[in-house]
Amino acid sequence: PSEPNGKRTNERTSERAYEPTDPNEPNSINQPTHPPASPAMAEKKQKQKQQQQQLDQQKFWNGFWPKVKRGTYFDADGHTKPLEAILSDLPAGRAFVPGCGRGYDSILLAEGDKRVVTGLDISELAVQEAVKYREERKVDQKQVDYVCGDFFKFSPGHRFDVIFDYTFLCALPPELREGWAKQMAALLTKDQGRLVTLIFPIVDRPGGPPYAMTVELVEKLLKPHGFVRVSLDTKVKGSHIGREGKEAMAIWKLPSQKSVRSATAAD
Questions:
Q1: Which of 85, 94, 202, 247 is least crowded, fewest Cβ atoms below 10 Å from its Cβ?
Q2: Which residues of the chain have pLDDT under 50?
Q3: Of 227, 202, 196, 205, nearest to 214 (Cα)?
Q4: pLDDT of residue 29
Q5: End-to-end CA separation in angstroms for the chain
Q6: How far apart are CA 210 and CA 194, in angstroms?
Q7: pLDDT of the residue at 62
Q8: Per DSSP, which regions of the chain are E strands?
Q9: At 206, phi and psi to the nearest 5?
Q10: Residue 237 Rama label (left phi>0; alpha psi -120 to 50; beta)
Q11: Closest by alpha carbon to 118, among 85, 173, 84, 157?
């Protein structure tokens, strides 16, 4: 970073002027201008960087959503059929959909009154559109509710039995992925809860969003936080048009320490 007023500090006017008179005396030329950052300071700067990235995300999506009509861009104008296919196998209780958009899959998860669903989106306009769709489908707010907020700061005061991630992780800058995994571990009910990741897009290309994904990448993010993969389907059927062959469905659980000890003892 440049110094205030564009001035350079420790500018050398001559080699001789900064030569130490004693070989053991500190040489101002060879010393760093700033001391190395402490671990606490480095962590603080990293958090500040992540906070700025999160603010940038909010600005980006609020600016992008006015363009998103039904059936355009990432809006599929309907629920996700691969999720519908496994719906009966998922736990009842509370469900959560981060990056819910218009809420198609939030409504799907609530069908049959098996789950109370919370959809979260960082864009106010997205939440407004989700509420419109909920009213269109005549679904009670007590069954499906929406929150406009930052996923990384979301603290509902309880855990969820089902979390569904589809086109959410792939929309995040790579620097925020570790925070995604950490937050998922904080939000999922241990042992019986299920994190459903419909991993997309599985392609080989740079840039984003959406950023290229792989099953291995998602596992590398989740495993350090204690997640265990329950199932994997690499031949997903019923994908939205244009996404065929670019998706994989992985389901994860988060064993508690008690269940881990029990499993170890049984072995």
A1: 85
A2: 1-32
A3: 202
A4: 39
A5: 56
A6: 24
A7: 81
A8: 93-98, 115-121, 144-148, 162-166, 194-199, 228-233, 248-253
A9: -85, 170
A10: beta
A11: 157
Q: How many CB atoms lie within 10 A of CB 229?
A: 16
Q: What share of the chain is helix, strand, coil (3-state, %, to 5)?
A: 40, 15, 45
> Helix count (H) and strand count (E) of the chain?
7, 7
User: What's the token pair of residue 183?
Assistant: 């937050």
- Residues 63, 81, 113, CA angle at the centre, nearest 5°? 90
Query: What is the per-residue pLDDT for 95?
Result: 98
pTM of the model: 0.78
CB 82 within 8 A of CB 89: no
**Model pLDDT for residues 200-222, shown as the tens digit of each residue:** 999 999 998 999 999 999 999 99
Tokens representing 24 are 């053991």
CA 188, CA 27: separation in Å to the nearest integer?
55
Q: In whole angstroms, what is the distance from residue 100 CA to residue 122 CA?
A: 9
**Number of other residues whose CB lies within 10 A of the CB of residue 172:** 22
Q: What is the pLDDT of residue 187?
A: 98
What tokens appear for 128 in the block? 């407004």
Joined together, the tokens standing for residue 112 give 């049959």
Q: What pairing do the DSSP bridges indicate for beta strands 93-98 and 115-121?
A: parallel
